[in-house]
Each structure stands twice: as C-alpha cells, then as structure tokens.
Task: inverse folding
C-alpha cells in the first residue's frame, strides 16, 4: 500500500486523506510483523521485495489509467498486461540467466513436477484474474490494502495445514493488519 500511495501521489495525482494514509502504515506494520520469523533478511532480499512492490503498484496504477484513457473492457486490459508481463519476464530470463535456467525449465516441463507447475500456473492466473476484477471496483490504493492481507491470511492458512506455535509478535501483527485494514475500509 505504501508504494502504491507514493507512486500514485508522485506520478498520478492520487490523493488519500492523511488519516487513511496513517492507517496504511499500520496495515504494512501488521503484515510485516505477521511474517517475522527466525530468518535473517538481506539487502538483496529487501531490494527484490521493494522492486516487486513497485511493479505491483505500477500494474494497478497504469492498468487503471490505460483502461480509463483508451477504454476497452477489463478482459482486454488484463490480457494486454499479462502479455506484456510475460514478454518482460521472458526478456529478463534471457538476459540474466545462463543455460542452467533453460536446463531447469526443460527438467520441469518434462519431469514429474510438470503437474505441480501447471497447478501453480493455473492458480496464479486465477489469482491475477480475481485481483483484476477487484481492481476494477476500487482505487489502486484500496486494492493494495486488500492485497496486503495475503500475508496474514497465508500465515493463518499455513497454520491450518501445519500447526506451529506463533510468537506474540506474529499474533499482534495479524491482529494489527486485519484491524487496520478494517479501519481503512470504514474510513
């Protein structure tokens, strides 16, 4: 939500009242706390996560702007964004990888993990479709708030699948993220 707000404010003229912007900080803090664990973060990991957040924010903001400016239905704009994303990912793969990536890809496509790859692709595509439908019905910042709740929901789903003890920090984070998102929605 913070990258969407910052990019939207800086480049697209998006305005969010200060109280709502303050609640965004609580949503982000709660999501971060919900996923805190015994791992160590790195600067590279932080840079990749930031880049991912920027790309997600741009997808929402640019998608809304393109749809408003050029018309076209949700399906057409969604398809175009997916096609552009696939093209960019393919170029990135070609420029940043050696033959090991292509060998790994060939192994996945011809091995027993093909079914897992297909299920992963289908479910991710379904997530993108649902995300796009939601984006068409709310602002990009509100969409990013709703999307940020994936982290606490993922933690809760993982607990249902493989129960482990949560730290007090994780519990506070889940509660804070959910309460702050509810407060944002009520504002």
Result:
């Amino acid at each position: 939500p913070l990258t969407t707000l910052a990019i939207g404010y800086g480049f697209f003229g998006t305005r969010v009242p200060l109280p709502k912007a303050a609640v965004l900080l609580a949503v982000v803090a709660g999501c971060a706390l919900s996923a805190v664990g015994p791992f160590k973060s790195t600067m590279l990991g932080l840079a990749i996560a930031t880049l991912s957040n920027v790309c997600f924010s741009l997808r929402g903001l640019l998608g809304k702007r393109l749809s408003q400016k050029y018309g076209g239905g949700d399906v057409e704009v969604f398809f175009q964004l997916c096609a552009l994303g696939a093209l960019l990912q393919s170029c990135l793969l070609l420029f940043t990888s050696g033959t090991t990536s292509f060998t790994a890809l060939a192994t996945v496509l011809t091995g027993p993990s093909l079914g897992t790859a297909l299920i992963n692709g289908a479910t991710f595509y379904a997530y993108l479709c649902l995300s796009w439908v939601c984006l068409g019905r709310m602002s990009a910042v509100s969409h990013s708030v709703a999307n940020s709740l994936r982290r606490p929901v993922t933690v809760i789903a993982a607990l249902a699948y493989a129960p482990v003890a949560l730290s007090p920090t994780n519990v506070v984070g889940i509660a804070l993220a959910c309460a702050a998102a509810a407060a944002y929605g009520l504002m």
User: Anything to note?
Assistant: The chain has a mean pLDDT of 77. The chain is about 80% helix and 0% strand. The radius of gyration is 19 Å. Residues 94 and 102 are 9 Å apart (CA to CA).
